[in-house]
Amino acid sequence: MTSAKDPGPAPGGATAALRELLRLLHRSAPVEQFTRPAERARAAGAGPAEQALVEEATQVALDIRRTLDQRRRREAELTALFDTAGDLAALRDLDAVLRAIVHRARMLLGTDVAYLTLNDPGAGDTFMRVTDGSVSAAFQQLRLGMGEGLGGLVAQTARPYASADYRTDDRFRHTQAIDHGVREEGLRGILGVPLRVGTRVIGVLYAADRAVRAFAPDAVALLSSLADHAAVAIDSARLLEETRAALVDLEAATETARAQSEAMGRAAETHDRLTRLVLRGGEVDDVAREVAGLLGGSGLVVYDADGAELARVGAEPVRLPDGALAGALAASRSGGRAVEVGGVWVCAVLAGPELLGGLALGGRGGPDDSGPARRGPDDSGPADSGLADSERRLFERAGLVTALLLLLRRSVAHAEDRVRGELLADLLAAPAAGRVHDTGRLLRARRLGVDLGRPHAVVVLDCDAALRSRLAAEAGRHARARDGLAGPHQGRVVLLAPADGPGALARTLAADLGRALRAPVTAGAAGPAAGPEALPGVYAQAVRCLEAMHALGRAGQGAGLPDLGFLGVLLGDGADVGAYVDRVLGPVLEYDARRGTELLRTLEAYFAEGASPARTKDALHVHVNTVVQRLDRIGQLLGEGWNTPAGALEVQLALRILRAGPAAFPRPGESGRDGDGGRRPG
Fold first, then answer.
1. Which string of b and e fits 553-572 if b means at least 16 CB within 10 Å?
2. In what order do the strands lie in the sheet containing 143-145?
3. d(Cα 219, Cα 263) in Å, to the nearest integer?
4. CA dihedral defined by 473, 479, 485, 488, rounded to 10 degrees?
5. Three-class SS of residue 9?
6. CB-side exposure of 581: number of CA atoms within 13 Å?
7. DSSP, residue by residue, 42-107
8. Is 364 within 8 Å of 374 (Cβ atoms)?
9. Which of 38, 53, 109, 315 could form a disulfide with 207 if both were Cys (CB 3.0 to 4.6 A apart)?
10. What is the DSSP letter of 10?
11. Which residues of 238-271 are buried (b: 16+ CB within 10 A; e: fewer)?
12. Contact 509, 521 (CB under 8 A)
C-alpha cells in the first residue's frame, strides 16, 4: 500500500504527454519540440512504466513526423514535376522553361545555387546555360572541358556525381578556371545529373550548397527527374525550331517556285511577243523599244558585230569605257550570260558560235550605278538598280530574239543582194552590138527602189582579199541606204548610187567602210552617168581611177578621176576635161568674170615668161607691183600649193586645155570658151 504521504504519479502525466505529442504532430512542430513532453512527464514524477510509455510514444511521433515530411516533400516534388510538365505542354519559351526547372531544383533540394550546362559538340566542351542563386560573373561564364571537374565528368560519362565538399574532393580532375569559379561562388557540396535524350547526353543539371553537404539518394532521384524534364524541353524546343525552320524553308521554297514560275511565264510570254514581232516584219528598233519597255533603264542600244549602232532607245546615252564593249561581248559570248561592266548590262547576240552583235542596257547596273532604281515585279520590294535573275534571263532571251531578227535580215539581205548584184552586173556589162537598152532593166531597178533616171556614180572598192566578202556585205548595206546597188563584179566590189560628185562619194565610202572593216579600203569613182547606157563606160573609168590610186600610193583613200589631176584627165574621157579645168582654174575664171580683171591673162604670161615677175610686167606692160598683187590674189583663190612644181603643172595643163577650146575638149552644157579664157554662152 502506498502511504498517505506518497502521492504517486501525477494524475494524467502520461496522458498529458501523449496529448501534447498529438498536438505537436498536428502543428507539424519542429523535431526538437517532440522531446519536451517526456521531460515534463519525468518532472511531474511519472513512474518508470509511464516514462517508458511516453518515450515510446515520442519515438512513434517522430517516425510519423518524418513520414509526413517525406510525403509532403514528395508531394511538393510531384507538384513541381507536374508544373514542369504543364510548362512543357504549354510550349513556353525554352529559356523560361529552363529557368523554371533550375529554380524548382534549387527550391526542392533546398540548395543555395542551381544551374544547368549544355554540351557544345563543335567546341567539345559544356557551357553554362542557366543559373539560379549565382552571384559570381566568372562562375556564370564557365566552360568545362569533357572530363574536367564534376560537371565535365557527368557530361562525359552520362552518370550522376555528387561531392560533399568539391574543393577537397580528389575524385575529379580540377582545373584552374573551374576551381577559380567555384571558389568565387563559394560552393562546397555539388550534385550533378546528366540531361539525356535517348542515349545522348546534351548537358548537366546541378544543385549546389555553399556549405559541406552530402546529397541523399532521393535528392539525386529528384534532380534526375527534373533533368529528364529539362532534356525533354530542350529536345522539344529543338524539334519545334527545326519544324519552324522547315516550314520557313518550305514557305520560302514555295515562294521561290511561285516567283520562278511567274518569271518563266513572263519570260515565255515576252519571248512569244518578241518572236511574233519579228515574224510580223518588225525591225531592230521595234525589238529594242519592246525590250526597253520591259526592263526599264535609261537606254538600250543594239550593236552589230563590228560595234556599229543598229538601234537606240532612251533619252540618256549608254556610256561604256573605251574598248569595254568588245571585252564585255567577249565575256558574254564565252560565258553564255549577260555581264555587267561600268553600270551597263551587255549581252552578246549569237547564232551558234557566230557573234552577230550585242545589246547594251544602261541605268540598270549595281548599287553604285547612278541610273534610276527599279522595284521588283510586284513593286513591293525594296528599290534595286540591278537586274534580278528573272530580268537577266529576259534580257538574254531578248538577245536570242535579236539574233533571230538579224539572221532573218541577213537572209533577206543576201537574197536581195543577189538580185541587186545580178542587176548591177547586167548594167555594167558592155552591151552587145546593136543592142539597145531595154525597159526590163528599168522595171527591175524600180522594183528594187533604184531610179536609173537619176545621174549615178560608179565606185569601185578594193581591200585585202580575205575581207572582200565582208566588204561586199557592208557595201550592200550602204547601197541600200543610198537607194543604189552594190555587189561583186569582175573580181571587184562595185557600188552604184545617185551622186553628183563621185569624188566626195568615194572619200565617204573609203572612210566609212574602212572603219567598219578596221582595214584600209580604197575607192575609185567616176561619173555621174547620164543614163543606164553610159554605166559600162563610167565603170571602166572608175576601174582606171582605182588602178591609178594604187599606182600613186594612195591605197586606203577615195577619189574620183578629177581628184587625180592631169592624170585623171589622161585616164578619163573628154567629158571629164571641163570638170578638171573648173576644179583647177574655176575660182580665177569666176573672179575675172565678176570683176573684169585679168588674172587669167596674168597667169598665162607668168608661166610663159618662166615664172619671172619682172619679165611678166614687161609682157603685160604693167608695174611689177601690179604683177605681184595679181599673183597674191591668184594664190588666195587657188590655194597655197598652186605654185609648187606639182601645182604649177596642174595649172599649166588646165591653161593649155582652156586655150585648146571647146572643139578639142567639149564641156557638157557649154559650147566652149573664147580665146581669152572667158566663158562662152551655151
1. ebebbbbbbbbbbbbbbebb
2. 143-145, 125-132, 113-120, 200-208, 190-197, 161-163
3. 64
4. -30
5. coil
6. 25
7. HHTT--HHHHHHHHHHHHHHHHHHHHHHHHHHHHHHHHHHHHHHHHHHHT--HHHHHHHHHHHHHH
8. yes
9. 109
10. P
11. eeeeeeeeeeeeeeeeeeeeebeeebeebbeebb
12. yes
Position 87 scores a pLDDT of: 61
Higher pLDDT, 577 or 429: 429
d(CA 346, CA 72): 82
Whole-number pLDDT of residue 4: 40
Q: Among 531, 511, 530, which Cα is nearest to 521's? A: 511
Q: Which residues contact 513 (CB under 8 A, 6 or more apart)?
A: 461, 463, 471, 474, 475, 478, 521, 523
Structure confidence by residue, pLDDT tens digits, 588-632: 899 999 998 999 899 888 888 888 888 988 888 889 899 889 989
Tens of pLDDT along 90-146?
655 778 878 888 888 898 888 999 999 998 888 888 899 999 999 999 999 999 888
CA 14-15-21 angle, 5° bins: 90
DSSP result, 495-539: EEEE-S-HHHHHHHHHHHHHHHHTS--EEEEEEEESSGGGHHHHH
Q: Where are the alpha helices (DSSP H) in 280-383?
A: 284-295, 324-335
Q: Which distant-in-sequence residues (6+ apart) come within 8 Å of 275 by Cβ?
A: 401, 404
269, 393 contact by CB (below 8 A): no
Per-residue b/e over 273-285, b at no fewer than 16 CB within 10 Å?
Answer: ebbebbeeebebe
- The Cβ of residue 644 has, within 10 Å, a number of other Cβ atoms equal to 10
* C-alpha cell, 313: 532607245
Helix (H) or strand (E) holding 413: helix 389-428
What residues have CB less than 8 Å from 408, skipping those under 6 apart? 278
Q: 226 has which bridge partners?
A: none
Residues paired with 341 in a beta bridge? 344
Counts of helices then strands in the chain (DSSP H, E):
21, 16
Q: How many Å is the Cα radius of gyration of the chain?
A: 57
The amino acid that residue 203 corresponds to is G
Name the DSSP class of 494: E
Length, in residues, of the chain: 682
| CA–CA gap between residue 672 and residue 678 (Å, rounded) | 9
Per-residue model confidence as pLDDT tens digits over 131-140: 999 999 999 9
| Mutual angle of helices 624-638 and 599-608, in 10-degree steps | 110
Cis peptide before 528 (omega within 30 of 0): yes
